[in-house]
Amino acid sequence: MTQTSATTSAPEKDVPFAIELRGISKYFGKVAANEDISLSVRQGEILSLLGENGSGKTTLMNMLSGIYFPDRGQIFVNGKEVVIRSPKDAYELGIGMIHQHFKLIDVFTAAENIILGMDGQSGPINMKAVSSSIRELIDRYGFSLDLNRKVYDMSVSEKQTVEIVKMLYRGASILILDEPTAVLTPQETDHLFDVLRKMREDGKSIIIITHKLQEVLSLSDRVAILRKGKYIGTVSTAEATRQSLSDMMVGERVSLDIDRPDPVSPKLCLKVNHLTCYDKYGVKALDDVNFSAYSGEILGIAGVAGSGQKELLESIAGLHPCDGEFLYTDNTIGATVDLHGMDPLTIKKFGVALSFVPEDRLGMGLNGNMGMTGNMLIRSYREGPFHTIMEQRRPRELAEEIRKTLGVVTPSLNTPVRRLSGGNVQKVLVGREIANAPRLLMTAYAVRGLDINTSMLIYQLLNEQKQKGVAVIYVGEDLDVLLALSDRIMVLCGGHVTGILDARTATKEEVGLLMTTHGEE
Amino acid sequence: MNEKSTAREPFVRVVRRDELPMWRRFAIRIIAALLSLIVCALFIFLVTRSNPASVYRSLVDGAIGTTRRTWSTLRDTAILLSIALAITPAFKMRFWNIGAEGQILVGGIATAAVMRYCGGLSPFLLFTAIIAASLAAGLVWGLIPAVFKAIWGTNETLFTLMMNYIAIQLTSFFSIVWEAKKGSGTIGTINSDTKAGWIPTSFLESLFGKSNYSIIVLLVLVLTVAMYIYLKYTKHGYEIALVGETENTARYAGVNVRRVIIRTMALSGAICGLTGFMMVSGSSHTISTSTAGGRGFTAIIVSWLSKFNPFIMIVVSFFLSFMSNGAIQIASEFKLNESASEVITGIILFFILGSEFFVNYRVILGRHHERQPRSAGKEGQA
Lengths: 521, 382
What we know:
The complex is a heterodimer of chains A (about 525) and B (about 375).
Chain A: E1 19-28, E2 31-41, E3 46-50, H1 57-64, E4 72-77, E5 80-82, H2 87-92, E6 95-98, H3 110-115, H4 127-141, H5 156-169, E7 174-178, H6 186-201, E8 205-210, H7 213-219, E9 222-227, E10 230-236, H8 242-250, E11 268-278, E12 284-294, E13 297-302, H9 309-316, E14 323-330, E15 335-338, H10 344-349, E16 352-356, H11 372-376, H12 393-406, H13 422-435, E17 440-444, H14 452-467, E18 471-475, H15 479-485, E19 488-493, E20 496-502, H16 508-514
Parallel strand pairs in A: 3-8, 3-9, 6-7, 7-8, 13-18, 13-19, 16-17, 17-18
Antiparallel strand pairs in A: 1-2, 1-4, 4-5, 9-10, 11-12, 11-14, 14-15, 19-20
Helix pairs in contact in A: 12-13, 13-14
Chain B: E1 12-16, H1 22-48, H2 52-64, H3 67-92, H4 100-117, H5 123-152, H6 156-177, H7 205-208, H8 214-233, H9 235-245, H10 247-252, H11 257-284, H12 295-305, H13 310-333, H14 339-360, E2 361-365, H15 376-380
Antiparallel strand pairs in B: 1-2
């Protein structure tokens, strides 16, 4: 393909675009991650890059930040064609990207992290002078950041602030943020957006990668939409609605309403008393947590990431040492036992299923090097008619069934699941746990990284379980979803239960406030 | 400024490939092996001025030129394969057992001890005792680092490595205790008169001829099949794969990680010990500090190169044994140092290992604008 049309690409206005991409393509083997994408960002503009997971947003931006190199296409920065071979090239062009996983040194302070790796004159660094110039940046945009605090003492939101300030201090005039709000409370999100608006006024260009429609509408000037690696179009936010964006993003009309059937004759299933535990560093992760879960009900658990959700579910599943009582009532026979102190196997036999989707998806629950069939066996490899030899047929059938019903896209049942996309990995995990026919189903971040269609499918599966009389505990991130799906919402903050609300009447603000109630030390 | 791309681009780019079809993966490896032979020929010619073809011929001659040589190549293959099989479960569990040398030696010491002290027993009892002793010795040697790792989280790499030196010192110690002639410091051939505890070399003589090593070879073949089944189809094998991948997933599945580590290393050490028995009883009939001779480390290459597949290990260990036996012939025939053969083996291994890069990655040269868009089908139709 030759770029003969030399005349078409001159910018219409006299001010050149801060960034312009023309015909960018990137292939991973046979898969086109990006195909012929052209888009532009003006100076002093916030552009949302909207698309479902796997639509190629991050890949595209990684080519701007020097992590990948495009197979085809041209990149222009301020009207001049450039080649970005490495993150260093990107810095020099004033492009800074804030990734989903922060790249900070835990034992360094904010200020040390900000200047880390920068070129400078030889000799000792004048930290005072550095700090005052960083402070100037902080004040200008209204960040809140203690420069002398070490990273390991910081909340997620503070770490993100360090990353942003780091980019600005290096002279970035084009900022790319990859799903920056995934880890923030509503209040923190609002604050971040205020800061971004100030940066826009200052003439900076900002690209924000997201799949949350609400954020797109409240923050950005224009929205560029990608779908399955292809560029769908750019619309002005003023003319867009939630439904119109979602239609463009998915390519078909999707209902955005989540069902919430009323619980049918809820019975006490699990009563947690005085649960206290410590994380691997010996810090108290949960402090005297008390709650009950009922059959036929979805109990939502809200909280900023790292408030003790992980420890809570792992403690109940017998994977985390803890103190307390888990009074589990089997309603089919009416007996009650304390699950505390039992090993995961015994607990599983009582019908307790844990579908835990940790941040790195394959860290627990699935084995990345095994195929779907192998992963079906994780919970059940001990079963089957033989003593030493594993059963092969049943897991294969189960894998096939999950592949069909949940629409898992995989070349074969034996393809290692780490090669599948995040959404497909999740389907495998959630599908397997539900197939266990549990009486208590715990899921953490079940829809993390899933596209709208798949998320809706998962909600529907959870509702089906609920209507079958399963007690569902749903740890979620998106408050809108928690409020729409759950019957009750329990809010965790710093390992404490700060409230248990009726999800039918609670508001987002109420929950958001509870999420930060006891956060301060 | 024109619209044509003027910017400089990287000259070479490396892109990860999709899964290649089986035959293409093998084609790449075979091309690499052929290339390596050409490079070896160049090396031979430049350094020795001999005719590469005749050097290759004597290599083959040295490895499989006579029945006796063939059997000794087969025996070395079996021994190397057996060690590779032994360490594979540990490596699959991501337990870096580099202590095979030591585990072999203690198995050998146990064998030698039983041969010396219980030589009068009936063959059946004697072999039972020898096998039990060698298995137990290797098992203990493998168990010690595993227990420390499982309970206190010590580093198994250093631990198993150091256990090798202890085993070597023990061997030196027994070389003095059991020395054949005062002051010789070597044990000499054990039971040279009665041949008690020697693995018979006349098994199926009508079929394999005199002095064959068929018992060892058959034993290791059985072991190969058993290990394949153990790793792939048993619950133990599944647990090993889980622990090797992520400990969290293993715990989630309810696997007792400590128990799996200890059990697997016990198995790994025991098979190494059994290999020690095969070396002492089946081939050298003595023991010295060089009995293992670095094969505990070579086996690591065999295991990884075969991607932990026991059947591929047969091919790899045969290749390595073939090369090293052929090399001895080259050395004597062309008055070359034995190192010449090591250079050749090194070159071949370098090419074969290097070919894995081309199996997994594609290298793109030159400017990308001129490149035709890659049609999705192109790669697939192969």
